[in-house]
Backbone:
């Protein structure tokens, strides 16, 4: 099921190469993110990775800021971002490989022929990790008629 999400603040990441299956090594609260352009070429769905990054877990002081509704300070070296804005969001178990990620991205993209999406792997606990796919609503044209 797709949800609507409005990010009030951007989420930043430190550049680091990863593959979809790398989520198993994340510490609790850690993240891996991918930015991708997607498109259909005839009936073939293509994902082109733009960047990959990681985010370390929030510190106690950062958590306190968030709980008070304050913005997080910029982290040194965190130069990649999922920008603030409006998104369609699909949350599901993490994809172990690129073909699985592509199948999930097709569901998130819906009928759009091209656009940008962000994939976020978040380690929620020692045993649980989720994958979130953010589809940027501001840059996506609807399917041409």
Residues:
């Amino acid at each position: 099921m797709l949800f609507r999400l409005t990010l009030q603040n951007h989420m930043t990441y430190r550049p680091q190469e990863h593959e979809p299956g790398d989520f198993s090594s994340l510490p609790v609260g850690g993240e891996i993110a991918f930015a991708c352009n997607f498109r259909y070429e005839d009936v073939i769905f293509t994902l082109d990775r733009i960047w990959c990054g990681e985010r370390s877990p929030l510190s106690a002081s950062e958590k306190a800021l968030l709980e008070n509704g304050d913005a997080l300070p910029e982290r040194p070296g965190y130069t990649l971002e999922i920008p603030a804005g409006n998104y369609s969001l699909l949350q599901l178990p993490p994809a172990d490989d690129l073909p699985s990620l592509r199948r999930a991205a097709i569901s998130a993209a819906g009928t759009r022929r091209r656009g940008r999406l962000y994939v976020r792997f978040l380690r929620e606990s020692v045993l649980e990790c989720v994958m979130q796919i953010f589809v940027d609503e501001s840059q996506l044209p609807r399917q041409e008629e």
Notes: Residues 3-136 form a domain with the Multidrug-efflux Transporter 1 Regulator Bmrr; Chain A fold (CATH 3.20.80). The first helix runs from residue 60 to 67. The chain has two helices and eight strands. Strands lie at 3-7, 11-15, 31-41, 44-55, 80-82, 85-92, 114-123, 129-136.
